[in-house]
Amino acid sequence: MPRRIAILPDTVADQIAAGEVVERPASAVKELVENAIDAGATRVRIELEQGGKTLVEVSDDGHGMGREDAVLALDRHATSKIRSAADLVGVRSFGFRGEALPAIASVSRLRLVTSEADGDATEIDVHGGRVEQVGAAARQRGTTVTVRSLFYNTPARRKFLRSASSESRACWDAVATIALAHPEVGFELLFDGRPRLLVTPGQSAQERLEAVWGPDLARTLVPVRYAVGGFQVRGFIQRPADAQPTGRRTQLFVNGRPFRDNFLVRAAEAGYRSAIHPGDRPSLFLEIETDNADVDVNVHPAKLEVRFRDRIGAERAMEESVRDALGRLEAAAVVSAPGRREWAPAPVGVDGAALLDAPELFEPAEPADIGEEDEETPGGPAGAAWELGPVTQLFNTYLVYETTEGLVFVDQHSAHERVLYEQVLDRLTAGGLPGQRLLLPTTLDLTDEELEVVEQYGEVLGRVGYEVEPFGGRTVALHAVPTPHPRFDATRCFQELVADLARGRFGGWANRLERFAATYACRAAVKGGDALEERERRELLARLFACALSPHDVHGRATIVQLPREELERRFGRR
């Protein structure tokens, strides 16, 4: 019988292996740049022609290789990083010379020039995986890999390459991702002789983000610093008010290695819950640090995916880190000049735990009682937010107070909306509170859709204080209503609430109770134009700073805007 199994020639095997490592020019760029970083480079120069289809050249100032190592690096499975199978667990390097070089060389005309010391270099020419020449050359310490005519000997693969502009964009993305992961390294990227990306070595993470993503986007980001369990999360996330349905950027790293994971992105987005409009997609730049033994980076041929030993813990860390960052005052919007560093004043000694003991919002209290609290409980409301200087109301809409660093503006409607949202959610899960009984029931005529909403949310309406029952036909009767503040119009709020729910105005909320709480909070909160007394202003601020996500309302809008003192001085010519 004829044989059905055959051993492939090395050239064919190399080309098959190349298909796993080199899908397009961007793949070659990624592998060569990562090799440069593993070689200790502080500067990397990448030059492309025709999107990399005719030329990819990567030069670095790393430690380079001697002649013997340079020749060995072109053999399959040659490496300077791995000695045994045990070394594959927790490997910190990105790649190794012998992994990418032979794969790329098998489908291109490759030239390798490398030197361990200035002036004494080795030059090797490889065509289609076959070494054509090995000789001496002159070069400063480092390595240059020149790849010409990628896939020239595999036309079936070459014809699937996209246009030069598309391939150029993919190469830019590959270099930009690595540049973000390594702000300590400088990168220069040229397309057909024109610079497209230039970043200097030794930048901070924030400076590198601004250089790569642009200053406009970078100014909308706030820092993340969080640790839980075996995970540490750091990076930057976008303010809810600046998020858009399209055009977002996301970048994840684990122990300095870029990777993709839609589930972790969703976990981060879950941290925005109740602080962003459903449908908006914030930009994310987050790095997870964990023990190398707890993450497997070898589950994808191109190292684009990873596997965590504690997947649930990783998702929890991602979600909690986002909520923690959004809850800090530095996540509030800042009025500042382009390019200036933002500031974040502390909430003037406000202790969130102590403020939870503050009296119910806008409930009257005897002045004598407040004085007694001042003397006996300095850590309570009278000793925290109550020690603010004057809190001014502008246009009967904005509350303004002074800190040592500048001015803070608070939108009273958005602030109260955030307070009520969190209060209502707590009440819905804790059994609710009784409403105020009406002496005479109020009757209201509703549409068919609104009647369905009343039936669907009847129990929930009761838990916030509304007691509703059918009154015949399309009419319902209100027997009890909630009393969140003296300016509350219970009937109007009920009508607007059921109308919003019926028309899907607050659609997109995955959780039915959250949708209801957001709708109710928006309609029940004090409005712009409502005059507040001094005590009410202070109490609103106290309760706002006790909230988990105080800088944002349920629509993703800012509740707080900060004007730094240095910005005032700059505008008045004092700086």
| Helix percentage | 25-40%
Overall outline: elongated
Strand order of the largest sheet: 5-4-3-6-2-1-7-8
Q: Largest sheet at a glance? A: 8 strands, mixed
| Count of spatially separate domains | 4
**What would CATH call the homologous superfamily of the largest domain?**
Histidine kinase-like ATPase, C-terminal domain
Low-confidence stretches: 339-384
Q: What is the CA–CA distance across the termini?
A: 91 Å
Strand tally, please? 23
Determine the number of helices (DSSP H or I, runs of at least 4 residues). 19
CATH hierarchy class name of the largest domain: Alpha Beta
Class computed from helices, strands and strand pairing: alpha+beta
User: How much strand content do the residues show?
Assistant: 15-25%
Whole-angstrom Rg: 31 Å
CATH topology of the largest domain: Heat Shock Protein 90
Q: What is the architecture of the largest domain at the second tier of CATH?
A: 2-Layer Sandwich
Structure notes:
By secondary structure, the chain is an alpha+beta fold. It has 4 domains: 190 residues, Histidine kinase-like ATPase, C-terminal domain (Heat Shock Protein 90); 123 residues, Ribosomal Protein S5, domain 2, CATH 3.30.230; 121 residues, MutL, C-terminal domain, dimerisation subdomain (formyl-coa transferase, domain 3, 2-Layer Sandwich); 85 residues, MutL, C-terminal domain, regulatory subdomain (Ribosomal Protein S8, Chain: A, domain 1). It is built from 19 helices and 23 strands. Helix 1 packs across helix 4 and helix 6 runs antiparallel to helix 7. It starts with 9 loop residues before the first helix and ends with a helix.
